[in-house]
């Protein structure tokens, strides 16, 4: 099980960021759940450099550019050298800023080339009665997977994050049954792009209003491998609550 804490732009104070990391390190020593923290770009290097703890760090996004004449870009290489080991790619909040499928593929390649594990986000805007969201998820996955080699595909983590469920409360998040169906569906699509039995090796996470109050049910109802958590991950009480709920 893995919990990725997407701090988004919630934590602007470096002292608060350091406190959250210290807290996560203590928490990590009490659990087998892998904890991955995704701070803002300026804090990522500050917090991850020389990291030898059980907690890992993720970039919230990486540049499709390589090192060189690219003003303002935070490249995969820069993150990797700063001690970061994962990269969230294709988050709906980045896609909303104009990130394209081609950008996402390029970012995945850059991440893999630098040894970062890409956490590729997919998710529909809304759930329609005729289940067109399934075709939408299939198309998003296909756009990322098609240009990649089998080896590259096997290096990914997929995060299913329905846009309608992000930044709400637990009651508005997905139900356990619906999540179970989506995880199966995503694995089925992955199966079309990977050799026999390999899809089971690509972790599938869920994100969207995950809280201590719903995380256990979501984990119990589905074959999800972990969670990508925004708001609840920057509050130490909720973050510890998530870990406790999954352990219980
Ligand atoms: P949320 O965000 O947990 O605040 O809904 C999840 C995400 O966007 O990654």
Task: Record keyword descriptors for this entry.
248 residues, alpha/beta, TIM Barrel, 8-stranded parallel β-barrel, 10 helices, 8 strands, 15% strand, globular, binds 2-phosphoglycolic acid
Q: State the helicity in percent bands.
A: 40-55%
Kindly report the oligomeric state of this protein. Answer: single chain
In the CATH hierarchy, what is the superfamily? Answer: Aldolase class I
Total individual domains: 1
How is this structure best described in words?
This protein has 248 residues and is of the alpha/beta class. It contains ten helices and eight strands. An eight-stranded parallel β-barrel has the order 1-2-3-4-5-6-7-8, surrounded by five helices. β2 (34-38), α2 (41-48) and β3 (56-59) form a beta-alpha-beta unit. It is globular. The chain starts with a strand and ends with a helix. 43% of the residues are buried. The model has no long low-confidence stretch (mean pLDDT 95). 2-phosphoglycolic acid (PGA) binds next to β8.
Would you summarize the structure shown here?
The chain has 248 residues and is of the alpha/beta class. It has a single domain (2-247), classed as Aldolase class I (TIM Barrel). The chain contains ten helices and eight strands.
């Amino acid at each position: 099980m893995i919990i990725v804490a997407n701090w988004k732009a919630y934590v602007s104070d470096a002292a608060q960021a350091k406190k959250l990391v210290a807290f996560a390190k203590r928490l990590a020593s009490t659990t087998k759940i892998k904890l991955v923290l995704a701070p803002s770009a300026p804090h990522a290097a500050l917090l991850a450099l020389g990291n030898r703890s059980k907690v890992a760090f993720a970039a919230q996004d990486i540049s499709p550019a390589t090192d060189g004449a690219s003003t303002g870009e935070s490249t995969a290489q820069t993150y990797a050298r700063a001690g970061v080991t994962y990269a969230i790619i294709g988050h709906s909040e980045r896609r909303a800023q104009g990130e394209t499928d081609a950008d996402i593929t390029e970012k995945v390649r850059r991440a893999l080339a630098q040894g970062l594990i890409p956490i590729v986000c997919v998710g529909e805007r809304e759930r329609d009665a005729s289940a067109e969201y399934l075709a939408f998820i299939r198309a998003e996955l296909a756009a990322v997977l098609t240009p990649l080699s089998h080896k590259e595909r096997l290096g990914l983590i997929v995060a299913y994050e329905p846009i309608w469920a992000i930044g709400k409360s637990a009651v508005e998040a997905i139900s356990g049954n619906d999540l179970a169906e989506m995880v199966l569906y995503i694995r089925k699509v992955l199966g079309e792009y990977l050799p026999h039995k390999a899809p089971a090796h690509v972790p599938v996470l869920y994100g969207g209003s995950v809280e201590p109050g719903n995380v256990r049910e979501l984990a119990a109802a589905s074959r999800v491998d972990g969670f990508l958590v925004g708001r609840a991950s920057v509050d130490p009480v909720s973050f510890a609550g998530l870990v406790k709920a999954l352990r219980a």
